[in-house]
Amino acid sequence: MVRKALGLSAIFAVFWLSLPIFCPASSVDRYLHKNAQIDSPPQNLFHGSAMKPIPPLEAASFALHRLEARGVRDIVICEISWIAAAISGYLVDAKGKATINGIDYSTFRIGIRDGLEKKNGKFLAGDEFVFIARGEKESGQSAWYPSPGPDYKIADGDDVTEGMLAYEFLLNREKFESLGSRFP
User: Fold this and answer.
1) How is the chain split into domains, by residue range?
2) What gap in Å lies between CA 61 and CA 66, rounded to an integer?
3) 3-class secondary-structure state, position 62
4) What is the C-alpha separation between 124 and 131, in angstroms, rounded?
């Protein structure tokens, strides 16, 4: 009897802990800025196609859970943009607070796959493909995660790091950097 109760408790715990992953996109509404800008893929691209991207609010729900898992708190989703090259997915821009490696960050971009590239159990809808954070140092200079940041110039003979590749997805940089002032 005790073993059965423990088994049921374990099943309930696994179910309860997995709930955020299966949370409907509508639950993300309370995290959206009142003036959030949400971009959807052009519907005519997928007319008659069996493959369709997940909706932007579903991508935002995945992004929200990924941000929370990274320790970001006070999350406010401001912009959601759909991209189709080099990866098919959404760039979700949000304000929030997180300390990473002793540095405070307040602006975040997280890339979420839309499911159009799904193949052999890889590249699934909801998978994260990039995470960028921006904050300010005490000196007023920008702090970027991952380091070394988008302004780093590679010296002759240096290798490009995986962190450097993240900035391929820093599209519309000026908009990203002004997120806090555009969405007070």
Assistant:
1) 25-182
2) 9
3) helix
4) 17
